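Re: that backbone. Tokens:
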């Protein structure tokens, strides 16, 4: 269920939104407000996934209200003034409903929010599964009879891609490439896996002694490094990735220490 609130200073408009929302099974209306100030105060102690908010309101308009939120959820703006549309989308709003709007229009906007909500949940589940897989491998390793480090043979990462979950041996990963909300994983057999997983979370999940971020968009397996120049790292399979300016010192320190 998507937890929502609705904010509108017009009683009839607010009542209409409430009635429409009750007809959409995946929306859960947590509260309604006739002004944005009350809504902002309520959000200090409560959280929601989606806000329907009018733009043209007294005291605090909808745009400024969203700007005032430190971590705004999904937003759908509602207003009778089309000139506010551009300003609303600058705030990464899911959609913009121009009054008067009907149920079908609100339902389409809600469907967009629902798709994004499921996508975000899938990403979180994928990231959690990956971290859990690595944690389990580390536990298995620590419980070994002789205490020898066998992580390379035993550590796997759980990756959801192509409508299935696969276990990928961490040692087989050559490098990872960020593509917005996705990560492209390049393996040593030449294959690639694209998964819904942010690069910064992958950086946390992978063992830091084996993987290094060398660019805002790339993480490399240090065991796969075959050479480097001033601005590039060469890897197995004739691949190479750029070295970002803010990562050069860390990479060069590693090279100097190891070689």
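Recovered sequence:
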């Amino acid at each position: 269920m998507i937890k929502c609130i609705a904010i509108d200073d017009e009683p009839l408009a607010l009542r209409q939104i409430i009635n429409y929302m009750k007809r959409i099974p995946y929306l859960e209306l947590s509260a309604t407000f006739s002004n944005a100030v009350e809504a902002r105060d309520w959000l200090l102690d409560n959280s929601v996934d989606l806000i329907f908010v009018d733009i043209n309101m007294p005291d605090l308009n909808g745009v400024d209200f969203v700007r005032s939120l430190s971590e705004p959820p999904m937003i759908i703006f509602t207003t009778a003034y089309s000139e506010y549309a551009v300003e609303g989308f600058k705030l990464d709003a899911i959609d913009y409903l121009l009054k008067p709007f009907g149920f079908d229009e609100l339902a389409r906007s809600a469907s967009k929010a629902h798709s994004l909500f499921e996508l975000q949940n899938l990403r979180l589940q994928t990231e959690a599964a990956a971290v859990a897989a690595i944690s389990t491998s580390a536990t298995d390793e620590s419980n070994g009879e002789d205490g020898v480090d066998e992580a390379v043979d035993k550590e796997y990462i759980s990756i959801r891609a192509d409508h299935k979950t696969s276990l990928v041996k961490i040692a087989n990963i050559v490098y990872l490439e960020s593509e917005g909300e996705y990560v492209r994983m390049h393996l040593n057999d030449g294959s690639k896996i694209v998964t819904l997983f942010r690069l910064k979370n992958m950086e946390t999940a992978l063992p830091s002694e084996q993987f290094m971020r060398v660019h805002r968009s790339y993480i490399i397996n240090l065991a796969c490094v075959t050479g480097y120049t001033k601005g590039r790292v060469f890897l197995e399979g004739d691949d190479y990735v750029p070295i970002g300016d803010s990562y050069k010192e860390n990479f060069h320190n590693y090279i100097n220490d190891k070689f």
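The first helix runs from residue 11 to 22. Confidence is low (pLDDT under 50) at residues 137-153.
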